[in-house]
Amino acid sequence: MARLRPSRRRISPVWPCLRGAVLIVLVCATPALARWKPQYARQSPQVRNWFENQHNARGQSCCLDADGHAFYGAYVINPNGSVTLDLPRGQHTLPAYMVLPGPNPTGHAIYWYKDYGTALRDQLAIVVLLKESGLLPDRLTALTAALPGTDLRPDGLSTQESAWAIAAAAALGKDGQPARIQLDGRALPVSASVTTMLTGPTTIHNLGERAVWQSVSVTGVLAEAPPAARSGMRITRKFLHEDGTPIDLDTLRQNTSFVLLLEGRAEDGQEHHALIAQGLPAGWEIVGRFNEGAVPGMAWLDKLSTTEAQPAADDRYAAVVALASDSASFRVAVRLRAVTPGTFELPGAQVSDMYRPAVFARQAAARIKVLSAE
Q1: N or C: which end of the chain has fewer CB within 10 A?
Q2: Could you say which DSSP state residue 242 is in?
Q3: What is the per-residue DSSP string for 27-78?
Q4: Residues 287, 359: one domain?
Q5: What are the angstrom distances between the C-alpha of 303 and each of 290, 294, 298?
């Protein structure tokens, strides 16, 4: 059973695409997560164009500006057309629609992958696999006793860790054993999952014979903006007139257009799919977004970074960029306009890894004024 091999979970072909000489192997990440390595950047335009024009059997585009890993390992073509690869991280079977025979201009197989795995993710995944398979019950008991572990911090979980934590909770709760809980001396209704509202300090007793899992969730609106902080990233911002000179936000007048320039970098030497965000004060609006490269008539902006997306939100400016050790910096800009007189809060600019939110940078909030038009 494939589910009994956690190593196969490490490689996620989320943008399926395959080509082959006898077989070309591309275990792909999305184009947003990939760039050409130097050796592939030196390939001829014809070779790069070949990769950029590949599509899988479902019509999905493939391998735009992708990092590739030469593949010389063993593979098995299965009777159903799927292919099992012997990769450094374990065997992985690709479905038939990802395997397309045909000529390949590089002369060797290439594969693409992204791994957001951690020790915590693997521990949670193994718990799910053992619980669902029914194998090694003693090992499952030991692993379950060690959960959630010291590494499980809700504010720092990656998307992989969050997903496997939810899957583990669902798998371990399938037995439906009722919990008998007493809250401040009052017995709560017996159920496999007991939920109640807390309004202050309280005492809870487990009246059953089995240990129960507990969690506390807090909802609400922050009383004050979070302070500036960072971990592995930096971000700065500048507010500028359309000629590139600094603008004083305390003397900003209604109907004034200006430019917000956001710059930053990743400092850990790793690849990041980063989300840049700047919330807007209630008195501002977005006038227009800039494309990558040089902006005509605004040489002072220099060259802006390539963005994978700039969502059309009206309450914030947001952009997604791909960062790597050889391209760790970003530079993006947006044109804004002051529209409503008053005093408003200006949220801090922030950048974070979309899949590892513990890698981030955040500025403190400030106050700004919009004066009436003269």
Answers
A1: C
A2: T
A3: -PPPGGG----HHHHTS-HHHHHHHHTEE-TT--EE-TT---EEE-S-EEE-
A4: yes
A5: 11, 5, 10
Residue 340, both tokens: 């409503």
70 in the same domain as 138: no
Do 260 and 343 belong together in one domain? Answer: yes
In 10 A of CB 120, how many CB atoms? 21
Q: What is the DSSP letter of 4?
A: G
Q: Determine which helix (DSSP H) or strand (DSSP E) holds 138, and give its type and residue range.
A: helix 137-146
Percent of the chain with pLDDT over 70: 71
List all residues 6 or more positions away from 235 whose beta carbon is below 8 Å from its beta carbon.
262, 263, 264, 276, 349, 350, 351, 361, 362, 363
> What is the count of structural domains for the chain?
3
**How does the average pLDDT of the chain come out, rounded?**
77
Handedness of CA 168, 169, 172, 173 (dihedral sign): negative
Is residue 188 in some structural domain? no
Rounded Cα–Cα distance for residues 15 and 29 (Å): 5
One domain, residues 268 and 361:
yes
Q: Are 124 and 79 contained in the same domain?
A: no
Of 273 and 237, more confident: 237
322 & 361 share domain: yes
pTM of the entire structure?
0.62
Are 158 and 265 contained in the same domain?
no
Q: Sign of the C-alpha dihedral, residues 35, 41, 45, 51?
A: negative
182-191 per-position pLDDT tens digit: 888 888 888 8
Q: Are 319 and 307 in contact (CB under 8 A)?
A: yes
**Last residue of some domain: 62, 92, 111?**
111
Q: Letter for the amino acid at 213?
A: W
229 bridge partner residues:
362
pLDDT the model gives residue 87: 62
Range of the domain at 139: 119-172
Residues 373 and 254 sit within 8 Å (Cβ to Cβ): yes
